[in-house]
Specification:
Blueprint: E1 11-15, H1 44-56, E2 61-65, H2 75-83, E3 90-95, H3 100-110, E4 114-118, H4 124-131, H5 136-149, E5 154-160, H6 169-178, E6 181-187, H7 194-201, H8 206-209, E7 215-222, E8 225-230, E9 236-240, E10 253-256, E11 261-263, E12 272-273, H9 281-293, H10 301-304, H11 313-316
Parallel strand pairs: 1-2, 1-10, 2-3, 3-4, 4-5, 5-6, 6-9
Antiparallel strand pairs: 7-8, 8-9, 10-11, 11-12
Helix pairs in contact: 1-9, 2-3, 3-5
The protein binds S-adenosylmethionine (SAM) and iron/sulfur cluster (SF4).
Length: 318
């Protein structure tokens, strides 16, 4: 369906939980996370009704995210349900990869098409520091497993942070020569915990591109990333630059939080609660349609220097 700016909105990102098994420094505070009650969180049976309504209104791609989506029991069944909807053509997850090794085959059989795995460093100790305790070997094993079973393309999300991982950019790029992975560098956003790091650690995508002569541009922005490749490489390198090169005019996304509210724009404070309408199909469709139609035209990060949303990244899903 079209929004009022004429953009086709066909991509739904669903945050299934705001809990996580890691505590990445730019995303979650170390302690003091408010635990949502079962009543606050949208249940999978309710979510299925919402997903079918979105599909009816033209959503064709769904991404499950979080918090960490793989900590939830029954995610395979939710994926199975979603893949049984004929108009849904693409189902993906964004995960930190810690639990993926053991789940990858089941998820693929359930209908999962592909994964984005978040990985901000290639070194064990730094990974432990950034994630406050994560074991990088589990992520490496998960990546290998996904490649082995064809849960592909495997995309690696890497948040760029000056003084933290900017010294590893070349190592990430070089990995794509030998391994068919698609590294996507993402600019740090001044949202939630990211606000605290932003001043000292934010860097622009151009700082990498200007320093790398091997990367050849292969296509224009497809859904937010500009994609490059080294001649003969197995994988690609993408750049997602919400700060230095905003992509609002091409945005095809709508978001659902784990408490059952629609967020028409990641960076706007506006939310629409679907919970009161979940058992009333007509109202549910009407409210979703209205939310899509009125999606904000753009974010204001470059002028505000801070997201307008009060939500944290782990509550929205990235
Ligand atoms: N737990 C899963 C994971 O880490 O992939 C899914 C949720 S996480 C919130 C989704 C993505 O948001 C991750 O790739 C993470 O790196 C990114 N992210 C979190 N906070 C961010 C920030 N302040 N700026 C840019 N990206 C951020
Ligand atoms: Fe958890 Fe993902 Fe946030 Fe890291 S980025 S704390 S893995 S939700």
């Amino acid at each position: 369906m079209l929004d009022k700016s004429g953009r086709i909105i066909d991509y739904l990102r669903v945050s299934l939980t705001d809990r996580c098994n890691l505590r990445c420094v730019y995303c979650m505070p170390e302690e003091g996370i408010e635990k949502k009650t079962h009543n606050d969180i949208i249940r999978f049976e309710e979510l299925e009704k919402v997903i079918i309504a979105f599909a009816f209104l033209g959503i064709k791609k769904i991404r499950f995210t979080g918090g960490e989506p793989l900590i939830l029991k029954g995610i395979d069944k939710l994926i199975s349900y979603t893949s049984s909807i004929p108009t849904i053509k693409d189902i993906s997850i964004t995960t930190n990869g810690i639990l993926l090794y053991d789940m990858a085959e089941t998820l693929k059989k359930s209908g999962l098409n592909r994964v984005n795995i978040s990985l901000d460093t290639l070194t064990k100790d730094k990974y432990k520091e950034i994630t406050r305790g994560g074991d990088i070997n589990k992520v490496f094993s998960s990546i290998e497993k996904c490649l082995q079973i064809g849960l592909a393309p495997v995309k690696i999300n890497t948040v760029l942070m000056k003084g933290i991982n900017d010294d590893e950019v070349e190592d990430f790029i070089n990995l794509t020569k030998e391994i068919p992975i698609h590294v996507r560098f993402i600019e740090l956003m001044p949202l939630g915990e990211g606000v605290k790091l932003y001043e000292q650690s934010s860097m622009k995508i151009n700082e990498i591109l200007d320093n790398n002569i091997e990367l050849k541009y292969i296509k224009d922005k497809s859904n937010v990333a500009s994609v490059y490749k080294i001649d003969g490489a197995q994988g690609t390198v993408g750049f997602i630059s919400p700060m230095s090169c905003k992509f609002c005019s091409d945005c095809n996304r709508i978001r659902l939080t784990s408490t059952g509210t629609i967020k028409p724009c990641l960076h706007s404070e506006e939310e629409i609660n679907l919970k009161p309408y979940i058992n009333d199909e007509n109202m549910l469709l009407k409210v979703i349609k209205n939310a899509i139609y009125n999606k904000p035209e753009e974010h204001h990060l470059e002028t505000d220097k801070k997201s307008r949303t009060e939500r944290m990244m782990y509550q929205i899903g990235g």
